Amino acid sequence: MSFKTDIEIAREAQKKPIMEIGEKLGIPATDLLPYGHDKAKVSQDFITSLADRPDGKLILVTAINPTPAGEGKTTTTVGLGDGLNRIGKKAVICIREASLGPNFGMKGGAAGGGYAQVVPMEEMNLHFTGDFHAITSAHNLLSAMIDNHIYWGNSLQIDERRVVWRRVMDMNDRALRDTVTSLGGVANGFPRQTGFDITVASEVMAILCLSKDLADLQKRLGDIVVAYTRERTPIYCRDIKADGAMTVLLKDAMQPNLVQTLENNPAFVHGGPFANIAHGCNSVIATKTALKLGDYVVTEAGFGADLGAEKFFDIKCRKAGLTPAASVLVATVRAMKMNGGVAKADLGAENVDAVKKGCPNLGRHISNVKSFGVPVVVAINHFHSDTDAEIEAVKAYVAEQGAEAIVCKHWAHGSAGIEELAHKVVSMAESGTSNFSPIYPDEMSLFEKIETVAKRIYHADEVIADKSIRAQLKAWEDAGYGHFPVCMAKTQYSFSTDPNLRGAPTGHSVPVREVRLSAGAGFIVVICGEIMTMPGLPRTPAAETIRINDTGFVEGLF
For 118, phi and psi rounded to 5 degrees? Predict the structure, then answer.
């Protein structure tokens, strides 16, 4: 059986001019800043004018732990948005922008797939409207100004050993994880050890995605702690006087990007923090704008619900005052089989026992999402190799968990293949049964917050943290940061910190390797296990097969 590739489908799209898409939402052409014919930014003035409008209903799409079999969370997010529009609801999609690192590494694009895609696909997965470049530039401007301040006399008395602001780039490059800068003599400054993170792990990315407007953005940038003196006094970005120039660099990036689906429905694509090393949600400004413009807003949170959904609930919703009406948990029969021990090469053969064996991973995610007080439905993202018996096994298991599983065929049929889920989501959202609450209060100690996530969401027995880490958390509490939520940086492939431990493991420990203060973003990053904030390329990077073909089209990116 042959299928068109995602990029072939995307190139056949009958796109409408972006001004027409804006018109659907009531955005005047004068408030759209076009980037070509098919994408535009929405002006801050227009966004400000929406303040008094009522909000639509917020729907979160999350998933089980990702497997090499693929789950299709973004595809389902896009499909559900199209499906809601198909049944007569005014729905807007909100997703994140793609990072170049994974695109040229192993993950591939981030625009959906099949007949449930956001277009223009190639531009979205490459430079798009330049937001990531602006974030990278703003971040590294601050880095340069810190070193420049030290070079020209260091009037703030920064301890060069305690500069905590690293550099970033939007590419996977393990060679840059730990570096020494300023070698080569007096003219180049004072040598010191530092390193690079990937742009999506930058605090500037998190700040842009959590800020409500430019004034809030500049204040948060100013709050960034970049270094300490020998007496351990914090030095802030505003002390370096970089916050104004950084805001200027981010002025356009702060405005949400409007694009469209294959079915010409509106989609905001804005911001892109990873969920395994950052907070994994699109921007607050895009989500809140969409809520003012649509009856329903469908958004996603990265990777599995143990990461993306937990951070969506505990960080984004807490910080932005959002209340989700319902959630959709994406799973596939293939992924259940992999969790049940089947090798990727053998997924095509029916194996109901393996499906049943793998379902506890799904079950734990269901109970975790429910623990936030949000009603959940399971979307079975359909593959042509799925058999009726395997699908029924998943449905029966989900029913035992007190939820419903619905087969969705949006990849092959677009909105027509996901109508049943759309109706179910409307029913859940309209029922008013959401009783959302984060799983820990602001006033809980930072270490207790880490333990709460580890024990309640990961089902770990304990958190292992060195005495120095506990002391650092206590120092931050004493400095006034104790009310911050925690942003867990952990492998996406398992509930544990071992990426090879599939299913629903218990009895494991969560080792905390490092903690980082994101004072501007307003959370503490907790780095667990072997997770890296600067990923490396795989043995065979996708970049090896990406090229421009004889007809001028990009090949190999999708």
Answer: -100, 135
Active site residue 86: no
Active site residue 74: no
Distance CA 510, CA 488 (A): 11
Query: 282 is written with which tokens?
Result: 């699109």
Distances from the Cα of 280 to the Cαs of 20, 25, 195, 330, 408, in angstroms? Answer: 30, 26, 22, 16, 24
Structural fold of domain 446-528: Formyltetrahydrofolate synthetase; domain 3 (3.10.410)
Domain-wise residue ranges, the chain: 6-127+253-431, 132-246, 446-528
Predicted confidence (pLDDT) per residue in 396-440, tens digit: 999 999 999 999 999 999 999 999 999 999 999 999 889 999 999
73 is catalytic: yes
Selected catalytic residue, list 313, 411, 484, 495:
411
**Of 173, 245, 233, 235, the residue nearest 204 (C-alpha):** 245
Residue 181 annotated among the catalytic residues of the structure: no
What pLDDT, on a 0 to 100 scale, did the predictor assign at position 109? 63
Active-site residue flag, 474? no
Catalytic residue of the set 39, 57, 73, 502: 73
Question: Would the pLDDT of 108 be above 70?
Answer: no
Q: What is the DSSP letter of 402?
A: T
pLDDT over 80 (residue 557): no
Provide the pLDDT for residue 1. 47
Catalytic residue among 128, 196, 268, 303: 303
Verify whether residue 242 is a known catalytic residue.
no
Handedness of CA 281, 283, 284, 288 (dihedral sign): negative
Cα 447 to Cα 68: distance, rounded to the nearest angstrom? 33
Q: Per residue in 187-208, pLDDT tens?
A: 999 999 999 999 999 999 999 9
User: What is the spatial distance between Cα 187 and Cα 175, in angstroms, rounded to a whole number?
Assistant: 25
Catalytic residue among 62, 67, 75, 76: 75
Which of 383, 447, 523, 558 does the annotation list as catalytic?
Answer: 383
Sort strands 179-181 and 234-236 into parallel, antiparallel or unpaired: unpaired
Q: In terms of CATH, what superfamily is 6-127+253-431?
A: P-loop containing nucleotide triphosphate hydrolases (3.40.50.300)
Confidence (pTM): 0.95
| Rounded-to-10 torsion of CA 126, 132, 136, 139 | -170
Which residue is it, tokens 């973004």?
Answer: 74
pLDDT tens figures, 243-261:
999 999 999 999 999 999 9
Q: What is the largest CA-CA distance in the chain?
A: 73
Q: Looking up tokens 């795989």, which residue turns up? A: 538
Active-site residue flag, 383: yes
Fill in the amino acid letter for 174: R
Kindly indicate whether the domain formed by 132-246 is annotated with CATH number 3.40.50.2300: no
pLDDT digits (tens, 9 = 90+) for 501-542: 989 999 999 999 999 999 999 999 999 999 999 999 999 998
Task: Report the percent of the chain where pLDDT is more than 90.
Answer: 86
Mean pLDDT of 125-135: 95
Decide if 411 is catalytic. yes
